[in-house]
Amino acid sequence: SHLLLTEPAPLEANQDESTDDGSLRTVLTLCDLLNRELLLLIGWAKQIPGFSSLSLVDQMSLLQSGWMEALLVGVAWRSQGSAGEELVFADNLRLDAAQCRAAGLAELYEALRHLAAKYQAMELSPEEVVTLKAMALANSDAEPVDCPDSVQRFQDWLHEALQDYESSRREQHRAGRLLMSLPLLRQAAGRAVQAFLRLHRHRSVPLHKLLLEMLDAKA
Amino acid sequence: KEKHKILHRLLQNST
């Protein structure tokens, strides 16, 4: 319930108007949204019980390593069952396969639709979504870690919360099934990072400073 | 750490 309360309200996209190139405009709109989501995510992480008591170095490591996964949980969740198989980055930013391809995000599209279909088949509850998001951050396999014991305790606490929730619903196998969806999330996040770095480096798409700093940390 | 100065600053802010 703490994680549900901490979850920020979804953002709206601000349509870019700096260019006539439609696919570039899509990318710029998306990058602006991601940058603002990233800012919110950092504030959100600080409210997860246990996160702020980690050392600053570990807080930075977990965020640098897990931010994209944590953001994509929300995208996959919102994209479930969307008409036309779109990716719902925001209520007013829905991209279909052709738009993603034109924007250089074809691989990301495939991975995220796969994840959205998986979430849909599992009928995730809001409680499960927020817990998966926190686990994506805690389980990001950040390296190096300053205090492995504290990070482990943080992970254990989230795992316990998930197990308590599932046993209250008498769903014996659910926690395990949710954890088994994490590799697909990591794969999607890897593709997203590569796609945005490629857009920046090869197509000279300008990125906001925070977004670029976080992408560089994963490069 | 210098390379990650925005994240560093955001985490140090108390809000």
Give the SSE order of chain B as H and E letters: H
Compute the average pLDDT of chain A.
94
Tally the helices of chain A: what do you get?
Answer: 10
Oligomer: heterodimer
Q: Span between N and C termini of chain A?
A: 35 Å
How far apart, in Å, are the first and last alpha carbons of chain B? 21 Å
Please state roughly what percent of the residues of chain A sit in beta strands, choosing from under 5%, 5-15%, 15-25%, 25-35%, 35-45% or over 45%.
under 5%
Strand composition percent of chain B: under 5%
Largest sheet of chain A: 2 strands, antiparallel
Q: Quick one: how many beta strands of chain B?
A: 0
The amount of helix of chain B comes to: 40-55%
What best-fitting shape of chain B do the alpha-carbon axes yield? rod-shaped
Number of helices of chain B: 1
Poorly predicted ranges of chain A (pLDDT <50, ≥5 residues)? none
What is the spatial order of strands in the main beta sheet of chain A? 1-2
Which chains have the largest interface? A-B, 15 and 10 residues
Mean pLDDT of chain B: 80
Task: Note the overall shape of chain A.
Answer: globular
Descriptive labels:
heterodimer, A: 219 residues, mainly alpha, 10 helices, 2 strands, globular, B: 15 residues, 1 helix
Description:
The complex is a heterodimer of chains A (219) and B (15). Chain A is built from 10 helices and 2 strands; from the N terminus they run H-H-H-E-E-H-H-H-H-H-H-H. Chain A is mainly alpha-helical. A two-stranded antiparallel ribbon of chain A has the order 1-2. In chain A, strand 1 (87-90) and strand 2 (93-95) form a beta hairpin. In chain A, helix 3 crosses helix 5 (106-122). The radius of gyration of chain A is 17 Å and the shape is globular. The mean pLDDT of chain B is 80. Chains A and B meet through helix 2, helix 3 and helix 10 of A and helix 1 of B.
